[in-house]
Amino acid sequence: MASIKVHLEKCTGCTLCVKACAFGAIHMAERKAVIDMAKCTLCGACVAACKFSAIELEKAAGPKKDLSAYKDVWVFCEQKKGVIQSISFELLGEGRKLADKLGVKLCAVLLGSGMDAAAQALGERGADKVYYADHQALKAYQDDPYTAVLVKLVEEFKPEVLLCGASTIGRSLISRVAIKTNAGLTADCTGLDIDVKERLLLQTRPAFGGNIMATIVAPNHRPQMATVRHKVMKEAPVQAGRKAEVIKTAYPEETFSSRAKLLDIVEELSATVNISEADIIVAGGRGMGSKENFALLEELAKVLGGAVGASRSAVDADWIGYSHQVGQTGKTVCPKLYIACGISGQIQHLIGMQSSKTIVAINKDHDAPIFKVATYGIVGDVNELVPAMIREFKRALNK
Ligand SMILES: Cc1cc2nc3c(=O)[nH]c(=O)nc-3n(C[C@H](O)[C@H](O)[C@H](O)COP(=O)(O)OP(=O)(O)OC[C@H]3O[C@@H](n4cnc5c(N)ncnc54)[C@H](O)[C@@H]3O)c2cc1C
User: Fold this and answer.
1) For the chain, what is the domain count?
2) Is residue 372 one of the residues assigned to a domain?
3) Pair (147, 176) in one structural domain
4) Are 96 and 244 contained in the same domain?
5) Where a domain ends, among 224, 256, 288?
6) 85 and 44: one domain?
7) Which residues line ligand 1 (CB under 6 A)?
8) HEC profile of the chain
9) Residues 77 and 110 in one domain
10) Which of 108, 217, 229, 244: disulfide with 123, CB 3.0–4.6 Å?
11) Does the pLDDT value for residue 223 go beyond 90?
C-alpha cells in the first residue's frame, strides 16, 4: 500500500497543494497542509505541486513478480450481443506478429455467455488458444464481473503481453485490470513491436499533443498492457478450418457479482452510419460556420451512404455529438473516402484520419495544413461547394 505524509517542518503554508488537489482532500490548519485520507486518492498531484518537497508519497513495492513466469500474447476479444467486434480481429492480426517474434502462443480471451462457437472460430483468426469464460453475468459488458474474471485469468495463466481495443469498453476494463494486477498500461497505441533481446513490447503512441511519437516500454512489470484504437491495424485474415484449443474457465459465483445493475442497453440513434465502420465520411470543422450549415453535411453523407465526422472545434461548438469526433481525443477512422469540409488539419485531427484511402479537402485557405494530406484539394467556400455537391451527387446517383 502507498502512503502520503506532510513534513511539517518543510511546509510553508503556501497552499499550492490545496489548489493542485482535484479531490478537495487538503486544507490548511495553522498554516500547515493537512491531508484528509478519506478523500485522498494518492494521485501525487500535491507532491508535484509542492515547491518545498514538503509532501512525500511512498509507494510500497509489492511482492516481486517472477517475470520469466509470464508468457504468450493475449488479445481481449470484445463482444457485443454475442458478436465479436472487428477491433478484436485487428488485434489478433497484430498479436500474431508479436507472438511470432517472441516465439510464443497467441491467445484470445473471450468473456460472454453461450458463445462456444464464436470461441472456437477465433482459431480461424489466428488464435492458438482461447480462454473462454462463460457466464450469464458476462453476456453484456459490466465493469465488476469483467474485471474480476480477467484479473483471475491473468493471475492464473500469466500472459507476457495483453492487448485490448481502445474502445469505450476496452478503456474501462483494461485500466481496472492494470491497477489490480500492478501492471503498466499504454493507452491508444498506434504501433506495436517487440524488442526480441529484452522481450519487451515497444508501444508507440502520440505524445505532447501529437507533436512527437513516443515509444514506451514496461521493463519491470507483467503483463505489458496496451490499448489500440479501432482501424489502426489490419484485421487477421480468416483461415478457414484452423482450430484453436479452447480453455473454458470456471470461477466461484462471487466473481461475477456487480455493484451496478445493468437495466438496459440503449443504442445511440443516428440518421447516418457509425463513423468507425463507415466507408465514406463527410466531416466538418469550424469552417462550416454554424449548426445550420453543419446540418448540410448530414444531407451530403446521406446521399453518399456515409457517416458524418467532425473536428473537435465543431463538437465543442455543439454542432454535433462527441461520438462523431475524429482525432486524438476522438475516433480513429480509415474510410475509403474522407471529405474534410472547413477543417484546418491540425495534427490532433490528422492523427485520426490520415490513413483514409482518399482524402478530399475543401478549405478557403490554400495554405491550410489539411491540403498536405489531401489526395484532392479544393480551395473554396464550403457554403457554396457543399450544397453544389449535394445537388450533383443527387443527380448523378438518381436520388
Ligand atoms: C490534447 C488535444 C487533443 C485534441 N484532440 C482533437 C481531436 O481529437 N480532434 C480534432 O479535430 N481536434 C483536436 N484537437 C484540437 C485541434 O488542435 C484543433 O484545434 C481542431 O482540430 C481545429 O478544428 P477545425 O479545423 O475545425 O478549426 P480551425 O482550426 O479553426 O479551422 C477552420 C478551418 O476552416 C476554414 N474555413 C473557414 N471558413 C471557411 C469556409 N467558408 N469555407 C471553407 N473553409 C473555411 C479555415 O480556413 C480553417 O482552415 C485537440 C487539441 C489538443 C490540444
Assistant:
1) 3
2) yes
3) yes
4) yes
5) 256
6) no
7) 209, 285-287, 289, 311-314, 325-330, 342-344, 346, 348-349, 352, 362-365, 368, 381-383
8) CEEEEECCCCCCCCCHHHHHCCCCCEEEECCEEEECCCCCCCCCHHHHHCCCCCEEEEECCCCCCCHHHCCCEEEEECEECCEECHHHHHHHHHHHHHHHHHCCCEEEEEEECCCHHHHHHHHHHCCCEEEEEECHHHCCCCHHHHHHHHHHHHHHHCCCEEEEECCHHHHHHHHHHHHHCCCCEEEEECEEEEECCCCEEEEEEEECCCCEEEEECCCCCCCEEEEECCCCCCCCCCCCCCCCEEEEECCCHHHHCCCCCCCCCCCCCCCCCCCCCCCEEEEECHHHCCHHHHHHHHHHHHHHCCEEEECHHHHHCCCCCHHHEECCCCECCCCCEEEEECCCCCHHHHCCCCCCCEEEEEECCCCCCHHHHCCEEEECCHHHHHHHHHHHHHHHCCC
9) yes
10) 244
11) yes
Is the residue at 175 inside a domain? yes
The answer to whether residue 272 sits within a structural domain is no
Three cell numbers written together for 306: 456515409
Cα–ligand 1 centroid distance for 117 (angstroms): 45
Do 171 and 137 lie in one domain? The reply is yes
Tens digits of per-residue pLDDT, 25-34?
A: 999 999 999 9
- Which protein residue has the closest C-alpha to ligand 1 atom 43? 363
Please tell me the residue having the least CA distance from ligand 1 atom 12. 312
Same domain, 210 and 354: no
Average pLDDT rounded to a whole number, residues 232-253: 95
Q: Please report the atom of ligand 1 found closest to the CA of residue 327.
A: 8
* Most distant CA pair in the chain, distance: 80
C-alpha cell of 16? 499550492
Instruction: Give yes or no: residues 27 and 149 share one domain.
Output: no
**What pLDDT digit, counting tens, does each position of 244-269 carry?**
999 999 999 999 999 999 999 887 66
Grid cell locating 361: 479537402
Report yes or no: 122 and 242 within 8 Å, Cβ to Cβ. Answer: no
Instruction: Residue 198: name the closest of 217, 215, 178, 226 by CA.
Output: 217
